Amino acid sequence: MSRVKDFVEKLHDVELSFLYKYKYPGFFDQSQAIVRAEIENRGLTQDVMNAHIEKYEYSENNTGCPRCNSILHTAQQVEYTNTSRYQAIDALEGRDSYTTVEECSVCGYKLFDGNSDSSTLTFFQALKIVVKRMFKKK
Ligand SMILES: [Zn+2]
Known about the structure:
Elements: H1 3-10, H2 13-22, H3 29-41, H4 46-56, E1 73-79, H5 87-93, E2 98-104, E3 110-113, H6 123-137
Antiparallel strand pairs: 1-2, 2-3
Helix pairs in contact: 1-3, 2-4, 5-6
This protein binds zinc ion.
């Protein structure tokens, strides 16, 4: 069983709709075929998927991803391109070359981008990152 198949089978209809809209176009042929088969299996039509997207996209009631409401996300360590914002965290950790990019697994929305200048790093966000990194090391 492929990882893509495993993943899409576990998605809710709403999540599958968002995946189809945002990530599907960037998938390789084989993965696209898997997504299309899953959509067909569930009998999801384009109209139904559009309705799901319309209901949840950037809804203020979303408690997960701001764009699709999914709680599935991945965090990746990436190399710094913006060195100024993380000095506090790095001083705590004694390291200086990596930061975190967190994105929604379903729609690819950037939940947190340590290299982005546009997001403001609050104390709470910084704390969250430090705690996450600590857990990862063990
Ligand atoms: Zn999302």
